[in-house]
Amino acid sequence: MEFVSTLISAFPIVLLIWLMTKKAALPSHIALPIIALLVGIIQLFYFQTNIRLLLANTIAGALSVLTPISIIAGAILLNRILAFSGAEKVITAWLNSISTNAVAQLMIIGWAFAFMLEGASGFGTPAAIAAPMLVGLGFKPLKVAVLALIMNSVPVSFGAVGTPIWFGLEALNLSSEQLLSVSSQTALINLVAGLVIPIIALRFVVSWQLIRGNITFIFLSILACTLPYYLLANWNYEFPSLLGGAIGLMLSIVLAKADIGLKSVDNDLPKGEKVPFKPLFIALFPLILLIVILIVTRIEQLGIKGLLNNNSLWFGFDIAGTYFSVSQALVLSVEHILQTSVNWSYKALYVPALIPFLLVVLISIPLLKMSAGTVKEAFVDTGQRIKLPLLSLIGALIMVNFMMLGDEQSPIFLIANAFANVTGDNWSYFAAFLGALGSFFSGSSTVSNLTFGGIQLSIAEQVGLPITLVLALQSAGAAMGNMVCINNIIAVSSILGIVNQEGNIIKKTILPMIIYGVITALVGAILLFSMQT
């Protein structure tokens, strides 16, 4: 009976992948709502789920779209402001003055800069900021989208100031020593994968010949981020990506300006003229301000993070057993939806939408001397770009809620248990793929760790594997799953104005994710061997 339940649970996911990757692929804003409806029907008629619980999860899923869509809207709006004001052209000219070498530009922005942004914020912010900058330099949007998704994997385990580790594994009641062990092993796995994954990402944009000619710079830029990242992860699980990325970004710029490891080719353009400081500072100021705000609002010790997450009640009211409330930090909450255990909340000041994106936009408009007409055009363009992603994300989030209904008999847990039962003692080779599955569904490595951390720990205890190693494999897997995560693909596509290419992007990113998984399994096997000898 459990075998049949597992097959039925897996069927909607297989169908979704086929619908989005077949020759005449369905766009995500059609495919995802269809699959959400199918999973709902399966829950109602096969798993006999209470219809009120299904409706409550439908409401919660639809409300949950506010988090990703507000971030996407904020990122698009800032990008449009920079583009329409002319600031983007100034930034492009400055980047060309550092290096016109395509590989150098891709590594500085697509790798090191995005690495740092992931460490500061997560939530899809790296692709939202870095990807449009690369398009502004002349790279093709679809190729940039694929590169951004693949590159933004290694730093994800410690994204948003380490949230996937310290919050994602919080429910497991690990000791501080165990958490640091998970942190260290995760960073080591990602460091090794990082020697390969950025090169694969580059190949989607430039030729092997160009990569080979600049391989020294590529490895120096990679290691400039990942070595500090690994060293930091041995004593702290909050700052590896943030500080590793910042160090790597500075070193990569220095290396590029000195042409270290870069090979000139016939079609290389001469470096652009030096951009005067004042217009450059004004053009860069929105991005600098954005990064500063992200950092100061994410580091707990500064106190601002606590203020933005303050759950102290401001006001609330009850309607037919459903409780609506707003906290003093504007955390919007709906509890006991339709008198069930289903809840929803939105941290209006902490989710990177109002702060920093909208705040930076409002400060930048007078600074960049934009006319009312241009500002209106930027807002209208933003609204047009988020219409279809809104439908896609509603479908995706309702589907995720339905897949997780049923606790240990939920479709997602049945699929996970089937993996574990098939692999047995060899689980360490496959643990990362369960983490990736969680990210594929939920759009978040933190949610993947929250969802599967417990089952990974249980499997490790059952088959006698080291708990910290299995959780490190889960954490690395959740990071690599970012490449194929539907939410992330929708987000970067909408920001870059790419229409109906989600299935095509998944087909391109699935192989790099599998390669990442193989590397993770091999490093895990070596770590396991070293622990047993």
What do you see in this structure?
- With 533 residues, the protein is mainly α.
- 70% of the residues lie in helices and 4% in strands.
- The chain has helices spanning 2-21, 28-45, 51-64, 66-85, 87-98, 102-120, 125-136, 141-151, 159-166, 176-193, 197-203, 208-213, 215-233, 240-257, 277-298, 304-308, 357-367, 372-385, 387-403, 411-423, 431-442, 445-463, 467-480, 486-496, 502-532, and strands spanning 313-319, 322-327, 331-335, 344-347.
- The chain has a 4-stranded antiparallel β-sheet with strand order 1-2-3-4.
- Strand 2 (322-327) and strand 3 (331-335) form a beta hairpin.
- Helix 10 (176-193) crosses helix 25.
- The longest helix is centred in the C-terminal third of the chain and has 31 residues, at 502-532.
- The two termini are 41 Å apart.
- The relative contact order is 0.16.
- The model has no long low-confidence stretch (mean pLDDT 90).
Name the descriptors.
4% strand; mainly alpha; 25 helices; 533 residues; four-stranded antiparallel sheet
The percent of residues in helical segments reads: 55-70%
Gross geometry: globular
Widest sheet, order of strands:
1-2-3-4
Order of helices and strands: HHHHHHHHHHHHHHHHEEEEHHHHHHHHH
Number of helices: 25
Number of strands: 4
Distance between the termini: 41 Å
Radius of gyration computed on alpha carbons: 23 Å
Structural class by helix and strand composition: mainly alpha
Low-pLDDT stretches: none
How does the major sheet shape up?
A: 4 strands, antiparallel
